[in-house]
From TrEMBL:
Record-linked HAMAP family: SecG
Keyword Membrane: yes
Stated role: Involved in protein export. The function of the beta subunit is unknown, but it may be involved in stabilization of the trimeric complex.
Main location: membrane
Record-given protein name: Preprotein translocase subunit SecG
InterPro entries: Preprot_translocase_SecG, SecG/Sec61-beta/Sbh
Topological domains annotated Cytoplasmic: 1-30
GO biological process: protein transport
Keywords assigned by UniProt, alphabetized: Cell membrane, Membrane, Protein transport, Translocation, Transmembrane, Transmembrane helix, Transport
Description of how the protein assembles with itself and partners: Component of the protein translocase complex. Heterotrimer consisting of alpha (SecY), beta (SecG) and gamma (SecE) subunits. Can form oligomers of the heterotrimer.
Any one GO cellular component localisation term in the record: plasma membrane
Amino acid sequence: MAKKKGGRMISSAGLVTYYDSEDRRQVTIDPKTVIAVSAGIGVFIFIMNLIF
């Protein structure tokens, strides 16, 4: 019987395992901020459509 190398799970169909890494240089945005900005843009577009 063959031994498993490295203890990694074998992925099927070419799926890749991604690892979370904490990088201090990355930009982090709170999900609530993304939702609030998206809603604000949506309201702005709605108002602009009513005006014009």
